[in-house]
Design goal:
With 232 residues, the chain is α/β, with parallel strands linked by helices. The protein contains eight helices and seven strands. α1 crosses α6 and α3 packs across α4. Bound molecules: zinc ion.
Amino acid sequence: MEAKHAQVLVVSPHPDDAEYGVAGTVVRWVRQRREVVYVVCTNGDKGTSDVSVKPEDLAKTREKEQIAAANLLGVREVLFLRLPDQGLEDTSEFRKEIVRLIRRYRPETVVTANPYRRYVWHRDHRITGQVTLDAIFPYARDFLSYPDLMREGLQPHKVKEVLLWGTEDLKYRSDITETFQVKLAALRCHKSQVGHIPPEELENRLRERHRLIAKGEEFQLAEGFHREEILR
Ligand SMILES: [Zn+2]
């Protein structure tokens, strides 16, 4: 398996989480010619309150919506792991898959859900964040971690920084004033998730949220993260 370098890897629990968490920043990166690859861990087949929809149809719809959103943002590639929605576990297979992708794409930056958010937090988000952090350090870094990945031609890789969305202690505010409208349009691609919200209400809710995150900064709208530089 050959390496396919991308500067940013976004590991999302479900289709749509990356749009809420980081899409405005993704557009900025793409405009700066940083290549972005999405990994969507679960098939999202539980995320509905519509009792008439079949889970397998919902999973297909959500993949299509995710691809449409990613195309709009300029994401280079979207990979679907199709693990069970609400059934994600912290297993060595899942961790190894993320290690494989980190070694394959060799990103400087990895973005994922904050696993340490307190109290009410989707279990899939917690597990995706934790497994991704473990995969970054030490598993992707150490060549003895997965000798079989070495045999596949996947060399160890050191990620430089991790950004975690869904954080309670914001350490890094990313200016999305110029890219907010693209983020909003990408979010609207997820019709099965946001289609029931009147368009104006969705925009107002989102704008208010990003305005609050930007409070105290010179810019109007921001996405917020915990940022961790990896020095080891
Ligand atoms: Zn989610």
